[in-house]
Amino acid sequence: MAHERRAGVPVAGKDQLKQGKDGKSIAVQGLRGAILRGDMVPGQRLVETELVELFGVTRGSVRSAIDDLVADGLVERIHNRGARVRRVSLDQAIEIMECRRVLEGLIAAKAAERAGPDDIARLRVHGELLRQAIRDGEMGKYSTLNQELHAMLAEISGQSTAADLIGRLNAQIVRHQFQLAQRTAWPRSSVDEHGTIVEAVAAKDPAWAERAMHEHLSHVITALKNAGE
Amino acid sequence: MAHERRAGVPVAGKDQLKQGKDGKSIAVQGLRGAILRGDMVPGQRLVETELVELFGVTRGSVRSAIDDLVADGLVERIHNRGARVRRVSLDQAIEIMECRRVLEGLIAAKAAERAGPDDIARLRVHGELLRQAIRDGEMGKYSTLNQELHAMLAEISGQSTAADLIGRLNAQIVRHQFQLAQRTAWPRSSVDEHGTIVEAVAAKDPAWAERAMHEHLSHVITALKNAGE
DNA sequence: GCTCGCAGGATTGTCAACATTTTCGCTAGC
DNA sequence: GCTAGCGAAAATGTTGACAATCCTGCGAGC
């Protein structure tokens, strides 16, 4: 009480470093990585003792890590019956993408409001790289650049709350997105949607940026729906 | 889906019963309630041993409960330095409300798509009650009805992901909203925004419903901004 | 007079053992 | 031949004790 420290501001830069040491964070990072990487498939049981010897941490840490991932929606647990990797149905994935759509729209709009000249320059460079990756058919590079572009917009927008929510939502559907990227040949019309978004932000036109982002993600959602049939 | 803990509708009856028994859930509910009710003010330290004797559960349960609330953004914890009730700045509250704005817009749109005749009837009744509460100046009743209306839309929309996100976001800013409700005399123009939303949903016009919801929450955000000056 | 260093006390983080619940295989009975 | 009931094994949930870390107050030294 004597020490009224910093009013809680956002996130955790140094916390991450500190947490890297203790057992819980090793378990969290290991488990999250394994699930996101696909080493553990949806529906698979997570037996605590197995994870103990897999990660070399105590059972308490594993337990705590599972709690964390349950809160993130990556794992589901049933009382006295253990935990398993959450299986996200296509309908749920669509729901999640619809949330992402409006949140990314918000970010795009705010980014358009706040973007400075240097931000715009960086965005343009990234947009050009994206176009090249698409033209050369390098899907891996495209995916990486795509994520970086969204991250850049999030940073410019300053909407850390929205960015955080999107991060969580995305983690839940990486598998669907991966499948989508592999099975879908993107139509020519959607090739330059990123370019439009960049342009809208550069023009500092929030409404346009939001519309462009909405349109872009609507196409992804449509592709998701079609993939299910 | 993964989190049917708090938000809209208690799907699992027996889970509630089970959760009521074990220590962790008692601690979670108790702590969340205390924070939301304002019994514990932002910035206040949460000493584990104190909570132990307050709720009559073990320290492990308290610890686990704190982890849960950290994941929900209600509490922040610093390594080896304990946990405290998260202090949400006005800027952060505005950010959160902007997320809520677009998510509620999504829900309103989807609700307009899916609403059946009985849903519409229920909404109209609720809208009328809301109007009465405003006319009679009963702010407490207004607040309750307002929440119920939003919950009803969330249920109709079927977007449980968005509803869950909104539930979490809302919990983080109850304090701000409470202060806002007490200090602000709502302008006449915003009196019947709820009516407009209900009408738009009843007309099964998603775009209109989304616009109406956006406008409504934009006014709340504006009020929030003004309250800070 | 001020700063640096150092125990003392308090609080959190970790761990290993105990209790409870569920599941699966087996036997007995219809 | 099939189903119901029982018991052992495995996995989970819980508890209490131990170790590491941090804040506070006091005293010595410059």
From TrEMBL, chains A, B:
Keywords: DNA-binding, Transcription, Transcription regulation
Region: Disordered, residue numbers: 1-21
UniProt cross-references to InterPro entries, sorted A to Z: GntR_C, TF_FadR/GntR_C, Tscrpt_reg_HTH_GntR, WH-like_DNA-bd_sf, WH_DNA-bd_sf
Keyword Cell wall biogenesis/degradation in annotation: no
Keyword Metal-binding: no
Database matches in Pfam families: FCD, GntR
Stated name of the protein: GntR family transcriptional regulator
